[in-house]
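Reopening: structure tokens for the zinc ion complex, inputs below.
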Amino acid sequence: MISARRLLGRLAYGSRYNDMPWGQRVYVRPGERFIRQAQWWWRIRRAPVMSLEEYGATRELGEIEEFLSCMMCGEPRQQPLFEPTGGKGWRYHVVRCPSCGFLYRNPNVLPERLGDLYSSGYSGFLTGAYAANRQRRYKLTMEAFAPVFDHGEGRRLLDFGSGVGLFLELAEQRGFDACGVDLSPDSVAQANERLTRARAYHGTPEEVPEIARGGFDVITLWSVLAHLPRPLDDFQRFRDLLAPGGVLLILTVNARSLLLKAYGSTWSGFTKNHLMFYSSDTLRTLLRRTGFAGVAYAPHYGDTIEAGTARLPGPLQWRLRRAVDASDGGNMMRALAFADETAIARWGDGLTVHRLREAGLPPATPPDSGDLRDSSEMAT
Ligand SMILES: [Zn+2]
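Re-run output (same inputs, fresh job):
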């Protein structure tokens, strides 16, 4: 049986766009951007706003889970929106903060149990075609923020969540003095087989003296941000680990993606281990609260489009880029965060830098993570 969604698509557009990859279709069909934005607005208007207690009563709490308030603004109220599911029976709930719009999994995973998600078997699929596609994605993103990654000689780089070392391999090729850290012991072992000068470590940054001493010129978070259960603590730590003039690169799924608006719970960004979903707005909040001076974004049009290998005709590529730009709705978000004014002066040329604090004011007060944690857990 044909779904209502597909039937509507056929009625509206005939079969002209049916052969196109699903990740491009939504961006190029005429008028679809406006329809999806209206649909999103309607979805949010319709969704109930509940107190954390009311919400908690409707959900079962797993053994490694906890209920959260919004980590970005402290709002305890919840707007249930999505229920992603996947193979082997995983299922979770995604809520929206009615105050700041942050999307997050609730219940979420207890930070002390995060290792359970990555303890074994996680490195299995990070090979073959996946590896080639990942490295292409890294190169395209480095290009988007050139010249930060052009020459690494004499600069220290930390890849946080370094997996099997696919990015560290590129970083050492470009001359960086690079190291990585990851929670999966299998991945770290594979990474160190792949690498020559760079080195990957198992654990957290404080557990590795080489990393804990800080002074990094670049920190990279490749598809890691959505996995962090305590992003404020982590970003505070990244800020401390950066040298003066340092930058933090972030690639993550985009909570403002037009594809999320179109596909809802079946969106590709709702993967098994993702915990929080950022837009350019909520990422700015996170960076501001952890003492960064500025941020620049590079819209993501899709790897095959940017690499020039997409089979999409030119006029449609143009339409796709325009839809991404106009909606801030690319499926991934790419950002370069600047530790301080020196970093903006050194690397901000040619980028649109959003300042995160007024010139002349002292850095934002670091959040008191202890307080935040207490208030963000549901009273039981
Ligand atoms: Zn919020």
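The pocket of zinc ion is lined by residues 70, 72-73, 75, 97, 99-100, 102 (CB under 6 Å). The radius of gyration is 21 Å. Marking as resolved unless the reporter disagrees.
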